[in-house]
């Protein structure tokens, strides 16, 4: 624990900390471009120069200098001030003065730091260098003349994303940051380099020239594109969400978000349901709310009613729907749209028990029928980190590129019962062994039982020196899944139970992945926000709010309860889901006992207290004993990462990503 | 970069070099290079391997060789490293040619010591022979590149042609060397001043003269 003084302030920092970190611990701001907490240290921008005694009589780059005992650091001396001005002046020599037309303007590190630490004027009147634009794909727009060669993007691609496609080509003045052969960067996390870029060299292509940061209203939200529950911020102007940025939450998403979280939001302005529709003579016809409600009431379903929840739902909606069905006398509610019917008698057995943060510390991981790269890209980065700490990764399933080396055991679920000797040996010897079951594996009969047997065999739930360890993980793909399960949205036989009951009235709450041909005889009411598969099959459409347009509670795959705020209003006649159900309940003669969102939320919390506490919900580890004979190949449910839900399918950015990155279609640029 | 070399079209290069593989002899050499580094650190061998590949391309094309993209990818794949990492190396060092060169790659040093000692005359001699910076002559013999310091400042001005250095040049000696090369002869590398061997002082020592004959003790003179 080195003790040192920074500008006379004594600080003690952990062994291995840098002088820069020590300065921050002392409350001193150190300007920097290349240094980033979550990336390796490069030390090439030289902006973080400080004066250090003992040491050579010249400024030192604090980001790359280990803090040591009895060091005296000065961050406010004349030498430091001059050094910073000099570095800044060099930086600006080849940086264009195009702030007025640069999208980074207003949130630019270079702009801010040149104001704070620069000279205030330029002495340079030679020519500036110019660099040709590089194509980096449908997400990243480049203006490489602005690049200051901090190499954050290069390090991110190598260390976090694991797709080594960005590099620095050439040397000296001719150095250029580029993707390999100027091809699109094929990473699900490519959008993060836009945030990392301290200047306007890498900016957002979909958001190009849309707005200035100070015009935007910032609302804190939770992402629903996968079950990670990425903490996001909606940046909206008027009624439109213009972009989504990740927030820092070390337990969930660190500070990353994948491209779907960021760029599917343009789908919120397309294919929206903005008024009720009623099917008349086989055609969906625009209607008023009253007409739509009458049509539903006319079904006279009695207690023959069922509901299916979609993947993007908040807990309040699911609670309101559950209550409505209960009052009508039915408990046929199901959230697993595609027919999964795994056992939910113990929520711990369907939870990501290691926690997203904890999986980093695992030293042996078995992936069972999961493609974390697509099912949860941010879990994939955690697994990459585990590998960096020395973890061994094995996988059962068809071989795919997960951006890291995996020992593929084969695509046969019977392997769960008879792991190869070498693998079993590793898991036996592991301190923190873990197993991750994906959505594909959940669909295989007996797979969960077999996995739970493995958990027993290798004692994956144990007490270690660093606290309790539970290595059994189920990686869900739907943002609504854990919340739905906590609210009881599951039938023993899955959706087949609903089909067998032949309900006269079926509520489809944003359910777009259901095979509605099974519900031939039911009167289908679709409550959702996008005109997608669910709406096409519906008899009545009630337009509702998307995740950016309502407050809501979400539970992520690890059972973390998080709240999202409403950023904008739903378009047209669309209403928030809970209020639709409340209004409908009155028409159906079973009035729900809440009149405001707050009352709805309070009632939900009274019913399921765990949903009222932000943070990890605790589930008691009491795994069910299940049939443990699994066999046969396992498939990955996600066929196209960019088009997994109604919002993404409506998004032109996601469509373009899908076409270009996954299907290899050439993208035609407009002639300039 | 107005004098940047023209890199051939990618499709064309892929068609020509897509099937590149080391010859048996070069493969054996490559294995010895790789074996010099510990297991798991095989990518440290990227530089000698790229050089080897460039020489093989040179042998195939009767030139000094260059590194087409598929060849770089072949080397990267052999070392199990991402293509971009190998490409970065190839683009960083000037000894790797990213564009085809002629049979003789004439690299004229234009850094300060050479400039002061008359590298302009060397350039003029080259220009007079039809060499243009960054271009290959139509007969495919010479490619002219201006490079930064080659570390031969004591023998400035100098030019590196293929693997040889030609030093202490002037307009005439440069012309003579180029003519000899064009004629298929192999002119003497090194200093071109008669009587000078390497980088010793021209016309005898100017300092420490007493040291020439014996081990002279200078301490008393300080």
UniProtKB/TrEMBL annotation, chain A:
Annotated PROSITE patterns: 2FE2S_FER_2 (PS51085), 4FE4S_HC3 (PS51839), 4FE4S_MOW_BIS_MGD (PS51669), COMPLEX1_75K_1 (PS00641), COMPLEX1_75K_2 (PS00642), COMPLEX1_75K_3 (PS00643), PROKAR_LIPOPROTEIN (PS51257)
Cofactor(s), by name: [4Fe-4S] cluster; [2Fe-2S] cluster
EC number of this enzyme: 7.1.1.-
Class of this enzyme: translocase
Taxonomic superkingdom: Bacteria
InterPro entries: 2Fe-2S_ferredoxin-like_sf, 2Fe-2S_ferredoxin-type, Mopterin_OxRdtase, Mopterin_OxRdtase_4Fe-4S_dom, NADH_UbQ_OxRdtase_75kDa_su_CS, NADH_UbQ_OxRdtase_ferredoxin, NADH_UbQ_OxRdtase_Gsu, NADH_UbQ_OxRdtase_Gsu_4Fe4S-bd
Residue ranges annotated for the 4Fe-4S Mo/W bis-MGD-type domain, each copy included: 216-272
Domain 2Fe-2S ferredoxin-type, chain residue ranges per copy: 2-79
Chain segments annotated as coiled-coil in the UniProt record: none
Cofactor note (record): Binds 1 [2Fe-2S] cluster per subunit.
Domain 4Fe-4S His(Cys)3-ligated-type as annotated: residue spans: 79-118
Keyword NAD tagged: yes
Claim: Lyase is one of the keywords in the record: no
Pfam families per record: Fer2_4, Fer4_NDSU1, Fer4_Nqo3, Molybdopterin, NADH-G_4Fe-4S_3, NADH_dhqG_C
Gene3D superfamilies with a match to the protein in the record: 3.10.20.740, 3.30.200.210, 3.30.70.20, 3.40.50.740
Keywords carried by this UniProt record: 2Fe-2S, 4Fe-4S, Iron, Iron-sulfur, Metal-binding, NAD, Quinone, Translocase
Reaction catalysed by this enzyme: a quinone + NADH + 5 H(+)(in) = a quinol + NAD(+) + 4 H(+)(out)
Similarity-based family: Belongs to the complex I 75 kDa subunit family.
Protein purpose: NDH-1 shuttles electrons from NADH, via FMN and iron-sulfur (Fe-S) centers, to quinones in the respiratory chain. Couples the redox reaction to proton translocation (for every two electrons transferred, four hydrogen ions are translocated across the cytoplasmic membrane), and thus conserves the redox energy in a proton gradient.
Full protein name: NADH-quinone oxidoreductase
Automatic annotation (TrEMBL), chain B:
Domain of life according to the entry: Bacteria
Sequence segments annotated as region (Disordered): 183-208
Keywords from the UniProt entry: 2Fe-2S, Iron, Iron-sulfur, Metal-binding
CDD domains linked to this entry: TRX_Fd_NuoE (cd03064)
Entry-linked InterPro entries: NuoE-like, NuoE_dom, NuoE_N, Thioredoxin-like_sf
Cofactors, names only: [2Fe-2S] cluster
Pfam families according to UniProt: 2Fe-2S_thioredx
Family the UniProt entry places it in: Belongs to the complex I 24 kDa subunit family.
PANTHER family: NADH DEHYDROGENASE [UBIQUINONE] FLAVOPROTEIN 2, MITOCHONDRIAL, NADH DEHYDROGENASE UBIQUINONE FLAVOPROTEIN 2, MITOCHONDRIAL
Protein name: NADH dehydrogenase
């Amino acid at each position: 624990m080195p003790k040192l003084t920074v500008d006379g302030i004594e600080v003690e920092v952990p062994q291995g900390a840098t002088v820069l970190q020590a300065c921050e611990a002392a409350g001193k701001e150190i300007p920097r471009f290349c240094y980033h907490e979550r990336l390796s240290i490069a030390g090439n921008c030289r902006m973080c120069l400080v004066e250090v005694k003992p040491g050579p009589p010249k400024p030192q780059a604090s980001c790359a200098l280990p803090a040591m005992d009895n060091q005296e650091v000065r961050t406010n001396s004349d030498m430091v001030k001059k050094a910073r001005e000099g570095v800044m002046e060099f930086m600006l020599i080849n940086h264009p003065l195009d702030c007025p037309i640069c999208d980074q303007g207003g949130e630019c590190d270079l702009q801010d730091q040149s104001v704070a630490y620069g000279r205030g004027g330029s002495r340079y009147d030679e020519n500036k260098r110019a660099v040709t634009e590089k194509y980096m794909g449908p997400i990243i727009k480049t203006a490489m003349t602005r690049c200051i060669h901090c190499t954050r993007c290069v390090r991110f691609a190598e260390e976090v994303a694991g797709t080594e496609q960005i590099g620095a080509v050439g040397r000296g003045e001719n150095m250029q940051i580029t993707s390999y052969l100027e091809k699109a960067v094929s990473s699900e996390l490519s959008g993060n380099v836009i945030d990392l870029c301290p200047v306007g060299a890498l900016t957002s292509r979909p958001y190009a020239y849309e707005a200035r940061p100070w015009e935007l209203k910032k609302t804190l939200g939770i992402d629903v594109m996968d079950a990670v529950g990425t903490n996001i911020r909606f940046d909206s102007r008027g009624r439109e969400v213009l972009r989504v940025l990740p927030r820092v939450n070390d337990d969930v998403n660190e500070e990353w978000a994948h491209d779907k979280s960021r760029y599917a939001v343009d789908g919120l302005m397309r294919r929206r349901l903005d008024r009720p529709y009623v099917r008349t003579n086989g055609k969906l016809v625009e209607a008023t709310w009253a007409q739509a409600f009458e049509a539903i009431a006319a079904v006279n379903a009695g207690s023959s009613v069922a509901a299916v929840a979609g993947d993007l739902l908040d807990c309040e909606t699911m609670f309101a729907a559950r209550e409505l069905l209960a009052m009508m006398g039915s408990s046929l509610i199901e959230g697993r749209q595609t027919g999964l019917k795994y056992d939910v008698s113990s929520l711990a057995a369907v939870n990501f028990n290691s926690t997203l943060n904890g999986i980093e510390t695992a030293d042996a991981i078995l992936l069972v029928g999961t493609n974390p790269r697509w099912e949860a890209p941010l879990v994939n980065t955690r697994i990459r980190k585990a590998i960096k700490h020395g973890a061994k990764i094995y996988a059962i399933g068809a071989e795919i590129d997960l951006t890291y080396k995996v020992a593929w055991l084969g695509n046969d679920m019977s392997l769960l019962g008879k792991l190869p000797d070498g693998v079993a040996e590793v898991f036996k010897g592991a301190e923190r062994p873990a197993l991750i079951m994906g959505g594909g594996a959940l669909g295989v009969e007996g797979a969960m039982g077999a996995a739970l047997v493995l958990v027993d065999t290798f004692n994956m739930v144990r007490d270690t020196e660093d606290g309790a360890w539970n290595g059994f993980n189920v990686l869900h793909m739907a943002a609504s899944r854990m919340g739905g399960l906590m609210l009881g949205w599951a039938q023993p036989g899955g959706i087949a139970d609903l089909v067998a009951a032949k309900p006269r009235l079926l509520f489809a709450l944003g359910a777009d992945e259901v095979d509605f041909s099974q519900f031939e005889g039911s009167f289908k009411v679709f409550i959702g926000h996008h005109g997608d598969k669910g709406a096409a099959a519906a008899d009545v459409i009630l337009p509702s709010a998307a995740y950016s347009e309502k407050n809501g509670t979400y539970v992520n795959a690890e059972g973390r309860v998080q709240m999202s705020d409403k950023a904008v209003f739903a378009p047209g006649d669309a209403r928030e889901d809970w209020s639709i159900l409340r209004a409908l309940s009155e028409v159906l003669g079973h009035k729900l006992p809440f009149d405001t969102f707050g009352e709805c939320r309070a009632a939900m919390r009274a019913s399921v207290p765990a949903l009222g506490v932000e943070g990890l919900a605790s589930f008691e580890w009491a795994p069910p004993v299940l049939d443990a004979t699994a066999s046969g190949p396992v498939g990955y449910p996600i066929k196209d990462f960019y088009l997994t839900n109604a919002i993404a399918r409506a998004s032109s950015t996601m469509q373009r990503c899908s076409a270009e990155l996954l299907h290899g279609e050439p993208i035609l640029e407009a002639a300039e | 970069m107005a004098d940047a070399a023209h890199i051939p079209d990618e499709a064309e290069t892929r068609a020509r070099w897509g099937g590149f593989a080391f010859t048996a002899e070069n493969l054996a050499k490559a294995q010895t290079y790789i074996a010099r580094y510990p297991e798991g650190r095989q990518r440290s061998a990227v530089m000698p391997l790229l050089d080897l590949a460039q020489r093989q391309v040179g042998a195939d094309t009767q030139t000094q060789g260059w590194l087409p993209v598929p060849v770089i990818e072949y080397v990267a794949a052999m070392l199990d490293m991402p293509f971009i990492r190998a490409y970065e190396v190839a683009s960083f060092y000037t000894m790797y040619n990213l564009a085809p060169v002629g049979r003789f790659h004439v690299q004229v040093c234009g850094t300060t010591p050479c400039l002061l000692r008359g590298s302009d005359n060397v350039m003029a001699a080259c220009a007079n022979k039809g060499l243009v910076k960054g271009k290959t002559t139509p007969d495919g013999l010479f490619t002219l590149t201006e490079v930064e310091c080659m570390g031969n400042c004591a023998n400035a001005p100098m030019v590196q042609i293929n693997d040889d250095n030609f030093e202490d040049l002037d307009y005439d000696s440069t012309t003579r060397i180029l003519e000899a090369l064009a004629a298929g002869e192999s002119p003497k590398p090194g200093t071109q001043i008669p009587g000078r061997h390497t980088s010793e002082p021209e016309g005898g020592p100017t300092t420490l003269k007493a040291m020439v004959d014996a081990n002279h003790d200078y301490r008393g003179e300080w």
